[in-house]
Design brief:
With 118 residues, this protein is of the alpha+beta class. The protein is 25% helix and 36% strand. The protein is built from two helices and six strands.
Length: 118
């Protein structure tokens, strides 16, 4: 079965300063339990804020290193999920469920892509 990466992009401006609410974390935990019991979830995690990240870029034959936060970015990578699904439609359904556990004030985008195998 194919594997899919759901790359979670968040608008850090709509994210509460104190982080996700306890209710959101409970709903997230319940969803992760459901998707794991279904045999779909292979790995998932959230990431620390972009202010704690560093970008390393190769361009024109040289390396540049930039510490966060990355003010030019409207959305930043906030986490990921790796799922093994029968097809892309199933991966999209699980991704929609993930998005719906968030409160309305969040702005979250997931880019779902099949992982290229060997």
């Amino acid at each position: 079965m194919p594997r899919y990466l759901s790359l979670v992009q968040i608008d850090e401006n709509t994210m509460p300063a104190e982080g996700p609410s306890p209710e959101l974390m409970q709903r997230m935990g319940e969803l992760i339990e459901e998707v794991t019991k279904a045999g779909v979830m292979l790995d998932t995690a959230g990431l620390t804020p972009s202010a704690q990240g560093t970008r390393v870029r190769w361009e024109g034959g040289s390396i540049s290193v930039t510490d966060g936060p990355f003010t030019e970015a409207k959305e930043v990578v906030g986490g990921y999920a790796i799922m093994q699904c029968k097809d892309k439609a199933e991966a999209l359904e699980w991704t929609k469920k993930f998005l719906k556990v968030h409160e309305e004030f969040w702005t979250v985008t997931c880019e779902v892509r099949e992982i290229a195998e060997g």
